[in-house]
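Box 3.1. Reading complex inputs
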Amino acid sequence: MIPIPISRAEALEQDAADPLAERADLFDLPAGVTYLVGHSLGPPPAGARARLSATQADWAGDLVRSWNSAGWIDLAERTGDRLAALIGAQPGEVIVADSVSVNLFKLAAAALPQARTYALFVEEDEFPTDQYIAAGLGGLSGAQVRQLAPGGGFDALKAGGVLIKSAVNYRSAEVADMAAHEREAKRHGTRIIWDLSHATGVLDLKVGADGAVLAAGCTYKYLNGGPGAPSFVYVSNALSGKLSNPLPGWMGHAAPFAFDEKYVPRDGAARFASGTPPILSLAALAGALEALEGVDLTQLQAKARALGALAIARAKAIGLDVPSPAEDARRGAHVSLRIAEGYPVVQALAARGVMADFRAPDTVRFGFSPLFLTYAGVWDAMDALADILASKSWDQPRFHSRAKVT
Amino acid sequence: MIPIPISRAEALEQDAADPLAERADLFDLPAGVTYLVGHSLGPPPAGARARLSATQADWAGDLVRSWNSAGWIDLAERTGDRLAALIGAQPGEVIVADSVSVNLFKLAAAALPQARTYALFVEEDEFPTDQYIAAGLGGLSGAQVRQLAPGGGFDALKAGGVLIKSAVNYRSAEVADMAAHEREAKRHGTRIIWDLSHATGVLDLKVGADGAVLAAGCTYKYLNGGPGAPSFVYVSNALSGKLSNPLPGWMGHAAPFAFDEKYVPRDGAARFASGTPPILSLAALAGALEALEGVDLTQLQAKARALGALAIARAKAIGLDVPSPAEDARRGAHVSLRIAEGYPVVQALAARGVMADFRAPDTVRFGFSPLFLTYAGVWDAMDALADILASKSWDQPRFHSRAKVT
C-alpha cells in the first residue's frame, strides 16, 4: 500500500516515484486545471483524437468500403478484447455496444430464463437507471421486480432471481465483494448482472477469477472514451452459447451480410451486439484505451486508492464527514464528502481550477483518475477546499450567479 | 415531373437547371468518384466535420461542463427537431437515440398494449433486423409473432396487432402507401411502426398528415450522419403521453440529474431516450443535417426519382431486368438491377470510379442521393455499366482477385 503523504513535499516525492506519472502526457488537459471529475467524463486522451481523425479520413476517402478496409466491421469486437484485459476477462468475452441502460436490459432479460425464479432485484441506492431498467424489463417480461434496502443484495441472492448490482456504488464508492456474491449466487440459482461503470479502468477487476458471468459498464468515465462513448458487455465464454439476446440486431448475427431470415447468433459476447455501432464514438474509445495499454492494474488501483486516501485524511483533518469507506479495499476510485454548502463550494473550487462534482443535496464527489492526477495536485486541491471552507469564500454573490452554468 | 434526359447534353442541361446543384459543394467526395452508395453510407458533409471538431474542442476545453455549456444535454432533442422537419413531424415528436434495431424494439413494445391483439407482424422481405427484433420482442413479451408474405402487411392490418413496416423496401425500393395503411390500421385497432430508414432525406415524407404515429429511422444513409450514426424515433404528440418506454434510461427521465428512484418520463418523443447518447457521433449527425437545411422536400424527392428514372431507362435500353418499380410514385431513391454477374460487375464499376453495392445473389443497387449527384454523373455511370456488360470486361482475373476488398 502506498503511504499517505503528510506534507506537500512528501506528495511531490510520491509523484517522483509514481510508475504511472508518464501517462499524464497522453492527455489533453487545460493548464491550471485539477480534474477530479474523471469518474463522470474523462478528459480526451491524445489517442482518441488521433483515431477520430483517422476515422474521419477513412469516411471521406474510402467511404462505405471503410467497413472492411478500415476495420469498422469488427471494431466493436476488437475494442471489446482490449477492454477484456482491463476487467480480467478472456478474448471474445467482451463486446462494445449501445449504452449501459440498454446493455443491462439485454443481459437481465437473457439471464431471467436461466435463474431459478423469474424475478429481478435491485438495491434502492443503485444508480437510478439500473432501477428504471429493471422496472421496464419487469413490465414487459412479467418478471417480478423487488427493490432492496441498500446493501440488501447479498441476502436477496437466496431468492434465485436476477440481481443487478454495482461493483462500486456511484455515490459512496463502496466496493462489493464480487467473489463472495458469486459463490452465494451459485448456491441459489441466482444470476448477477454486474454494473462495472465506476470500477473499470481504476480497479484490478478479475471477473473471471471471481466467478462473475455477466456484466456491463461505462466507457466515458475512467476509460476516457468521450461523452456518451458506447458501453460494453461482458459474458463469460462458458455461458454465452446458452443465452439469447432479446434485442437481436443484425450486428449480433453470425453472417450480417447474408441477410438471412433466420437469426443465427455470433459466438461469444458478440451476440449481444444489436444495431450498427456509432463508429465515430467507438473509434474515439478505441483510441482512448491506448492510454491504458500495458498498464499494471495493481499499480492503477493502488494509485487511485492512495489519492483517495490522501483526500480522506485531509478532509477528516478539517472536520468533514466522509461517507465513503475509509478502508482502501472497500473503496473505489472516488470519494464522497458531505458538505452542507456543497453547491457553492464546488463553484468556488472551480474558480480556483479544481473541478469536482456536486450531487444534491449535500454530496461533493472527487474522482481520482490515476492516469493523469498527481499527489501534489490532490494535495493542493485539498488545500483549496480547506481554505474555501475556513474563509467561507463561497459565500459571495458571484458564485451564486454562475449557478446555472455548471 | 422532371423529364428523363435522352442524351448526355440533355443531362448537362438538367444539371444546369438543378435547384439543388449547389448542395454538392457541401460534401467532401474524392475526385473522380460517382457515389451511388448514399443509401448505404452517405459521404461526409463539411458540416459534420466542423461540428465534430468543435465537439472535440469542447471536450478538451470545458470537459464535463460541456454537457451544459456546449449543449450536449439536449443535442438529441434539438437534432430530433431538425429531423422532424424532414419527415413532416412537429417539434418534440422526434428524438435521436440508439440504433434502428433498439428503437424498433422500444416502439413495438410500447405499442403492443395499445393494439387490439397482442401480436407482431412483419413481412418476410423486410430488412432482416426488423424480423429479428420482432422475434426477440415476441420471445420476451409473449406476443405472438407472424411473418407475412411480401406485401402482406396491408391485409394483416385487420388482425389488430403491431405491424413493423418499411416506408421504402430496402431491396426493391417499393414505397408503401402510408396514408392508406394508417386508415386501415385505425379501423382495426392496429398500430404500425414505420421503418423510415430508406425514405428519410429523399422522399417528401408527411408522417403527420398521413396519420402515422410511430416510426424509427436510420441517419447514416441519405442523411449522411456518419458510420453508425444514431437512429431517430418519431412518436406523434397525440400519442406519446400514453406510451411507456420499456427501456427507460435516465436520459428519458424528466429530471435526469435529480436521481429520483421513481421514473418520471419526459414529454414527447424524448421519453424514448434511454442511456447517454454517443455525443461525437451525434454531433457529426447534427452537422451533417446542415446540408439539408432549408431544402425543399418536393425538389429533393423529384430529383432522387428523376435520377432513378434515368438509370432505369438506360438499364432497360441495354436489356437489364429492373425489379424496382418503374412508376416514380411507387419508388424510393434507389434502384435495384438484376445482373447475374453482379458481383464482378460492381468491381469493374468501382475500377472506373462508379461505386455501387451488390446484394447476393444477383442484385446491383444504385442509390440516388439528390444532394451530391448529377444527371451527367449518372448518365456516365450508366455508360460505364453498358460498356462493362457489352465488353464483358468484368471477366478478368484482376476483378476476381479483389473480391475480398469490397
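In summary: Chain A touches chain B through 85 residues (CB under 8 Å).
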